[in-house]
């Protein structure tokens, strides 16, 4: 992998004062630092935190969260729709560039607010004269996403410094995990995140094309500024289309950011937990004899005579110093991951709850529209009337399911880690000393009582089972709407 300059530090010259990656302190010395609390331990950990993730030995195939979010960061950076949230602005940029960037973001913010205000006014006017709720669904579908885009942009601008600190700390955590676990590869998200980017890009472009055709075919629609005759006579249709599609395009981009940034963050936390699990299994397979474990299992089926009990007592135990330091290191890393996940729940919670709530609302409205026009479509033997609603329903359903499943990997990996640790404790029980058993049992209790899970604003936990609740909620609301009609 090509080496990149770390944007979170003064420059590459900062790294030249330190040894090369293969001269970094070996892992057993890090463990000994934990046991002895040696003075050099802090300097060793500082080198681990300051080392570039791309330069870590034996993990060049790894991909960090920074690199996963790079396409979104580049999109927001070069389009100028957000201040830099994942990487800080370069200090070498000219003042004119920074001023122009702030002016463009302010104009975009005002444009979003103006179009959203217009859509809300049209929605309120339409509700007064609408014969049924279905007539207002197009107005709702045009206005609600603008609100979410407005909220996402506001959150990223208001908490920009918190976002920068979060991703900087996350980068340091990934570097520490990679240095402590050189054989663990955390690149499982490469193919997945490229696929997700491609699918979201196709859906965004297709949505903009469909909305553009709708503007040209129905210029008198109440959710367009061309609904007023004076506007149609004054402004040409291409300019009207541009006025509407510009905020809609940026809104769709904000919606993608609101979905993928939290999802990929939780997924990388799941990869970190998986790395700890693999490292624990590797340590036990290396330092604990599997042959003796098999012999102990065979003795378990026989009566406990003195000879068997004497064998249990003569089993060689692992070095308490080795295992104690290793478990403490994994426990400390797990606590660091837990703290970062809690920060993510708080930092991403507001716009993620709004984004998923709006997607759920739009899915319900679109499904209701499909059933509303289904009878006419069957009579006319044509799906042209319900096709736009159906395609939007499929796209939004995919976004909701994919973001939920990606984020739920964190909960699944934590449960798997707890099961693996429980199995190892049961398998090597007679080879562990009593303090080591108590330590592992305490760690198991920690995993059971406070397991890692994506929980935006601590309102609900993101697990695969939540999709069943969403399905029941959507079906209930659709039935209520159809009965009211």
What does the model show?
It is a single chain. The protein is mostly helical and 485 residues long. It contains 17 helices and no strands. It has helices at 27-36, 40-50, 65-68, 70-79, 95-129, 137-158, 160-180, 190-217, 229-234, 237-287, 290-300, 306-314, 320-347, 349-380, 387-427, 434-449, 466-484. The longest helix is centred in the middle third of the chain and has 51 residues, at 237-287. Residues 1-61, 291-302 and 304-321 have low confidence and may be disordered. Its main location: membrane.
Element layout with pairings:
Elements: H1 27-36, H2 40-50, H3 65-68, H4 70-79, H5 95-129, H6 137-158, H7 160-180, H8 190-217, H9 229-234, H10 237-287, H11 290-300, H12 306-314, H13 320-347, H14 349-380, H15 387-427, H16 434-449, H17 466-484
Helix pairs in contact: 1-13, 2-7, 5-6, 5-10, 6-10, 6-14, 7-13, 8-10, 8-15, 10-13, 10-14, 10-15, 13-16, 14-15, 14-17, 15-16
């Amino acid at each position: 992998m090509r080496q990149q300059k770390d944007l979170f530090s003064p420059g590459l010259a900062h790294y030249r004062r330190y040894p090369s990656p293969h001269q970094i302190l070996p892992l057993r010395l890090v463990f000994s630092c934990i046991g002895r609390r040696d003075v050099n331990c802090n300097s060793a950990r500082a080198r681990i935190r300051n080392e570039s993730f791309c330069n870590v030995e034996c993990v060049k195939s790894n991909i960090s969260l920074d690199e996963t979010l790079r396409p979104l960061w580049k999109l927001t950076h070069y389009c100028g729709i957000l201040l830099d949230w994942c990487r800080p602005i370069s200090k070498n940029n000219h003042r004119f560039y920074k001023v122009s960037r702030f002016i463009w973001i302010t104009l975009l913010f005002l444009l979003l607010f103006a179009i959203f205000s217009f859509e809300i006014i049209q929605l309120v006017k339409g509700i007064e004269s609408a014969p049924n709720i279905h007539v207002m669904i197009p107005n709702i579908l045009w206005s609600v996403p603008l609100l979410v885009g407005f909220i996402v942009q506001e959150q990223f601008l208001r908490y920009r410094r918190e976002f920068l600190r979060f991703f900087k700390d996350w980068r340091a955590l990934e570097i520490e995990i990679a240095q402590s676990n050189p054989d663990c590869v955390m690149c499982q998200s490469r193919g997945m995140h490229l696929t997700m980017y491609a699918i979201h890009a196709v859906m965004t472009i297709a949505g903009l094309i469909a909305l553009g055709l709708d503007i040209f075919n129905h210029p008198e629609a109440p959710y367009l500024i061309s609904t007023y005759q004076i506007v149609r006579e004054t402004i040409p249709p291409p300019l009207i289309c541009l006025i509407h599609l510009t905020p809609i395009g940026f809104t769709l981009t904000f919606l993608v950011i609101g979905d993928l940034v939290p999802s990929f963050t939780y997924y990388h936390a799941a990869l970190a937990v998986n790395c700890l699990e693999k490292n624990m299994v590797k340590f036990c397979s290396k330092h604990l004899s599997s042959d003796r474990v098999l012999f102990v299992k065979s003795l378990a089926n026989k009566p406990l005579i003195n000879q068997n009990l004497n064998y249990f007592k003569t089993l060689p135990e692992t070095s308490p110093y080795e295992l104690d330091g290793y478990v403490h290191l994994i426990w400390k890393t797990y606590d660091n991951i837990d703290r970062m996940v809690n920060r993510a729940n708080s930092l991403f919670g507001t716009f993620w709850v709004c984004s998923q709530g709006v997607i759920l609302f739009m899915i319900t409205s679109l499904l209701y529209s499909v059933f509303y026009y289904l009878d006419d479509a069957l009579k006319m033997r044509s799906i042209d009337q319900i096709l736009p609603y159906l395609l939007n329903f499929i796209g939004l359903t995919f976004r909701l399911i994919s973001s939920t499943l990606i984020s739920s990997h964190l909960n699944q990996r934590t449960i798997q880690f707890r099961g693996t640790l429980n199995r190892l404790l049961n398998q090597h029980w007679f080879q562990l000393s009593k303090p080591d058993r108590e330590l592992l049992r305490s760690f198991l209790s920690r995993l059971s009582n406070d397991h890692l899970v994506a929980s935006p604003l601590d309102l609900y936990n993101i697990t695969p089972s939540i999709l069943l609740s969403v399905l029941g909620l959507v079906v209930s609301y659709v039935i209520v709407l159809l009965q009211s009609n």
